[in-house]
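stage 2 :: seqdesign
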């Protein structure tokens, strides 16, 4: 691998959306490393977190913070720099910027100003979790985070009760037990789920099985549930689809 001191061809002006590792620092592409080495500036969700990655690969680059609290002002500053000839690399703390992480506002701002956008693909937690889940991958929906409020969350679960697709969400560790309890109540104790925890990290774990069984397994853990979690819910089985159709027909009849 070329060292950080090797001369690299300059990047053309634009916004480079750079995917970075979820946990294992080896999970980064050669192209991503080249862009980070050559960028005029790296916009980071947390400069301290990104600095660990840059130092690991011997990259000395200017960094600026870009997070949910300064997106509006910083986006305009970055677009101005690009229009003046800069190559700006956008990174989040882990994974792909814009996927439940800051980035969307800057990207749309670039689109409105006709600034070139170059994606540098790589790791995304929900994709890694999905392909290792054992659930169908031919048709799925990623929906970010479920509502933190139980009532709204149950409504969201009701909406996917008869879905033929695998459902993928991120969930906070302090809410996962409540969310699983709502899945049992709304979708039934036998609906298959997968909990992908700390994907690519030292304590990576996959829990697969009926929702009630997975819930009970997590409840028995004395230390509680920790780490970053991707929650996957299996598509409805044929009998569940039939039951959902009958419920809809009954509601229409009553109406």
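stage 2 :: out
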């Amino acid at each position: 691998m070329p060292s950080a001191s090797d001369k690299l061809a300059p990047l053309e002006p634009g916004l480079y959306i750079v995917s970075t590792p979820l946990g294992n620092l080896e999970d980064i592409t050669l192209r991503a490393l080249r862009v980070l080495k050559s960028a005029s500036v790296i916009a980071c969700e947390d400069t301290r977190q990104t600095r660990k990655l840059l130092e690991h690969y011997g990259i000395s680059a200017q960094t600026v913070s870009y997070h949910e609290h300064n997106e509006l002002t910083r986006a305009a500053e970055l677009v101005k720099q690009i229009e003046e000839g800069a190559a700006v690399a956008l990174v989040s703390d882990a994974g792909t910027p814009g996927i439940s992480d800051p980035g969307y506002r800057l990207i749309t701002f670039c689109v409105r100003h006709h600034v070139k956008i170059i994606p540098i693909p790589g790791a995304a937690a929900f994709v890694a979790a999905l392909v290792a889940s054992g659930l169908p991958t031919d048709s799925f929906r990623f929906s970010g985070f479920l509502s933190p409020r139980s009532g709204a969350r149950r409504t969201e679960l009701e909406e996917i009760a008869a879905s033929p697709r695998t459902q993928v969400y991120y969930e906070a560790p302090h809410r996962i037990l409540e969310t699983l309890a709502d899945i049992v109540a709304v979708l039934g104790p036998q609906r298959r789920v997968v909990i992908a925890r700390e994907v690519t990290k030292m304590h990576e774990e996959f829990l697969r099985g009926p929702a009630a069984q997975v819930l009970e397994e997590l409840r028995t853990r004395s230390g509680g549930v920790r780490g970053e979690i991707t929650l996957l819910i299996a598509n409805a089985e044929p009998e569940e689809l039939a039951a959902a159709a009958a419920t809809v027909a009954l509601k229409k009849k009553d109406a």
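stage 3 :: structure notes
- The mean pLDDT is 92.
- Strands lie at 14-18, 41-44, 63-65, 87-91, 117-120, 140-145, 166-171, 192-197, 205-210, 229-233.
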